[in-house]
Amino acid sequence: MESKKSLLPVKSDFVFKLIFGDQRNVDILGAFLSSVLDIPKDEYERITIINPHLKKESKDDKYGILDVKLHTKNGSIVHIEIQLKVLTNLKPRIVYSLSKLITEQISSGEDWGIIKRTISIVITDEVFIVTGDKYHHQFRYRTKDGIDFTDLVEINTLDLSKLPKNDDSTDLWYWMKFIKSDNEEEIDMLAEKSPQMKKAVGILKELSADERNRMLYESRFMAEIDLNSRVSDEKKKWQKVVAEKDATIAEKEIALAEKDAEIAKYEAEIAKLKLS
After folding, report:
1. Is 96 exposed, middle or buried (0-12, 13-18, 19+ CB in 10 A)?
2. For 204-224, what is the mean pLDDT?
3. Are the CB atoms for 128 and 137 separated by under 8 Å?
4. What percentage of the chain reaches a pLDDT higher than 90?
5. End-to-end CA distance of the chain
6. DSSP state of 81
7. How many CA atoms lie within 13 A of 264 on its CB side?
8. Which pLDDT score, from 0 to 100, does residue 264 have?
9. Helical H runs in the chain?
């Protein structure tokens, strides 16, 4: 008898997008967004996913870029991405991506008033915001005492590694648990929390039972490992080059020091002869 297949990890960007980035599942996406953001509920009455397909940055990119971009009912733009690892310069990259989403909204001669609220949601599997133990942070343009300059720009960070073991009775905790957990029993318990969560669990099980999806997931997983290996190999190669150059420099410095010592000795002997 064929053994039961394990569930695919929701925190994989590939699986996450299949669940939350499908226009047929906007009710799931709306429930998740409602747990993260403090925008009016009617914004989720009509969600349009902007990028329903995987895109590649180059022809050599085997696994492409998987994120979710959407418009809410009133035109707000929300960008969601998962970063399992907190990479160097992730913060400036997030700011750049968010800024680009803003500038893309307006052309020369248009009124500034057309700019819609732009929100970024970044989910990480490693500690991103080091300070404190909160797993959700909201960042806006505001003063230290909490006075908002504008809500047009917002960054939300969701840290899976900081999610407490026991629920805090918020919808966000349940969605974070769904994204983080690989335990089918825990996933089944979450299905009881809401109709949208039940639907999400059902979709996850369907995706996990589909051999093609498993192959695509494994392909992306292996491609990412290959890329990381190439980056690691390049890093080691350059570290070796730098080490060899450092060793050469050190040898030259020793040789120069020895010559300086010889010159100093010679000058000392000359000085003695002059005094005699």
Report:
1. exposed
2. 81
3. no
4. 46
5. 104
6. E
7. 6
8. 78
9. 13-20, 26-36, 90-103, 171-180, 184-190, 195-209, 211-275
